[in-house]
Amino acid sequence: MKYGYFDDENREYVITRPDTPEPWYNYIQNDAYGGLVSHTGGGPSYHRDPKTRRFLRYRYNNLPADRPGRYVYLRDEDTGDYWSATWAPVEKPLEEQSYECRVGLNVQTIRTSYSGIAAEMTYFVSPDHDVELWRLKIRNESGRRRVLKTFSYAELAVWGTLRDLLNMDNNPRCSRVDWRDHTLLHSTWNDLGTSLGTCTWVRVYGYFTSSTPPAG
Predict the structure, then answer these.
(1) Separation between Cα atoms, residue 85 and residue 118, nearest integer Å
(2) In 3D, which of 54, 70, 69 has the Cα closest to residue 159?
C-alpha cells in the first residue's frame, strides 16, 4: 500500500501521503454529535441529524470533495510565508512539508513540518459533551527565534441540507453571527419539513471558540 500502513501496536492506520486518490475519512462522534474528518482536515459535522442539523458545511459536488473543512493556517510574520497545519488547503510541495496522519478510534492526528516548524493537529469529540475539539501543538525546530500567527477556519452551516441544495441564497439572509466572550455564535431559523405548509421552524445554535483569547 503506497499511501500508508497499519500500526498494530497503537491500533491506528497511518497515512503517509496526503495526495490520496480521494479524501479518506475518519468518524469522530458520541451519541449526539458526529463528524467526518478527512486525512487533511476536511469534512462536515452534524448534531443528532445530518439532514436537518448540519454544523460544519458540506458542499455537494464540490472539488475537492472534502472542502470546506477544519483548518488552521500558520504564518511567519518575518517572511510572510504561510502554510497549513494539516497540509491542505495550502498544499505546500511535499518535498518541502512532511506529512503523517494517524487514524485512530474516534480520534485523528495530523502531523506536519515546514520551514523548521512542527505542527500536530488532533481532532476528537468529547464523550460527555456535544462538542468537537481541536488540539494544536506547535514546536520550533529551526534553531532560531520565530514569530508566528495562527488563523483558524471553519465554515458554519447551521441549517438543513435541503436549504443548502435548493435555497442557498436564502441562508445568509436567515443566519445570524454574533461575537461574545471571544466566541463566534452562529444561529439560524431552520425549516424542518419539505414545504412551507409542513415546516416546523426551530432556531439552531452553534459556536466556535478557542481556549486562548484571539487577537483578532
Answers:
(1) 8
(2) 54
Query: What burial letters (b/e) apply to 173-190, b meaning 16+ CB within 10 Å?
Result: eeeeeeeeeeebbbbbeb
Neighbours of 2 (CB within 10 A): 7
DSSP designation for 23: P
Element (H, E) at 26: strand 25-29
SS3 57: coil
For residue 98, what is its C-alpha cell? 512532511
Q: Note the pLDDT tens digit of each residue in 120-175.
A: 999 999 999 999 999 999 999 999 999 999 999 998 888 777 777 777 777 777 78
Helix %, strand %, coil % for the chain, to 5?
5, 50, 45
**74 within 8 A of 82, measured Cβ to Cβ:** yes
- Cα R_g (the chain), whole angstroms: 18
Are 165 and 57 in contact by the 8 Å Cβ rule? The answer is no
